[in-house]
Here is the input.
Amino acid sequence: MRTQVGIIGSGPSGLLLSQLLHLEGIDSVILERRTQDYVLGRIRAGVLEQGMVDMLRKAGVAERLEKEGLVHEGLSICFGDRRQRIDLKKHTGKVVTVYGQTEVTKDLIDAREAAGGTLIYEAENVQIEDLDSDTPALTFLKDGKQQRLTCDFIAGCDGFRGVSRRYIPEDKLKIHERVYPFGWLGILSETRPVSDELIYVNHWRGFALCSMRSPTRSRYYIQCAYDEDLEEWTDDRFWDELRIRLPSAAAESIEMGPSIEKSIAPLRSFIAEPMRHRHLFLAGDAAHIVPPTGAKGLNLAASDIYYLSRALTAYYKDDSRTDHMDSYSRDCLKRIWKAERFSWWMTTMLHKFPDQSSFDRGMQLAELDYLFDSEAAQASLAENYVGLPY
Ligand code: FAD
Ligand code: DHB
Here is the structure.
């Protein structure tokens, strides 16, 4: 088999890249190790920046998003008995859209299939070969048969636990990492969201977040130990703990119901650089992870794909032009470091740290107090939350 761009992974990064390339007449093949049902069953992010919405529009997959997405002009931060609304629209003129990653993935898969795109699911043991030559290849096992896909370029869109990052030589790859000493326990339930806007809570028992997927579907998170046993969290125990952490008006009015999904996510900050080695380009979680506070993970994947699709399009459409390829890693990382900073800052301000000293706690309280009293601090949060420009 032969294609122009071989893509490893059918998460949002790989699918969006494939769709944008298709619209430019550039051929790609996606290799995914899981089944399509598995990919579509994952519940992950839910808040889209305007830049990502614009990308999905450009990719021709925003029809359902425009009908079903919920536009949010603000969010709340709570701590003690104080609640501060951050007015995104007032401070930035921009908004965010609540629309689940699962739905984004579904819309992209539908579009790729409708256009006759090649998505190979259950591709096992994907490996990269001949990366130093002009005809790199992806090899994999499909239905027990060894296959080889020759490409011009390879996009490593295979998430944090993928294989592609390993192909950047050790002496060239620099890793920056922080692992946080806690996780998030999240549930999805067919209940009315407790508020029209998201609520982020700093509580002495730990962080909590009220989010949603639709007017009838809520998504709630509470901070938990990183090695928490999911089995020990019955729905009743989850709702009790969530209500303790919420402001009393929200705790009293919250609609409770059975969970339809429940999972624990670890929190990590991680950056691998450079994001390119010869004909291989890393994008999305394959190159970086942010802790979820601030909702940046999915949005960063989209901005990487903006730069990568620009680089590949310039190459194919503009006489093998390579300047955007040469600056790909630098262009992405400039934005990634700032999103990492914002996610780290939100995480540090809003969580309970097990080894926190009285000084650390004092800093956290001063940070919140400053945010609540300063329009400038609120404007800074808003500017980052709606997404820095690409
Ligand atoms: P992924 O979505 O991880 O896609 C990678 C794809 O590659 C997967 O389909 C995987 O099966 C496939 N793959 C992996 N290895 C191979 C291989 N060897 N061969 C072939 N295919 C392979 N972000 C937020 O902003 N808010 C959140 O609330 C949030 N919650 C999250 C919860 C969890 C449990 C996780 C893991 C992430 C969460 N994120 C969240 C982050 C966000 O979901 C990611 O940033 C986003 O999915 C990145 O997209 P991606 O396409 O780069 O990677
Ligand atoms: C969601 C996740 C986040 O990390 C966040 O900051 C906001 C919302 C969500 O899953 O809805």
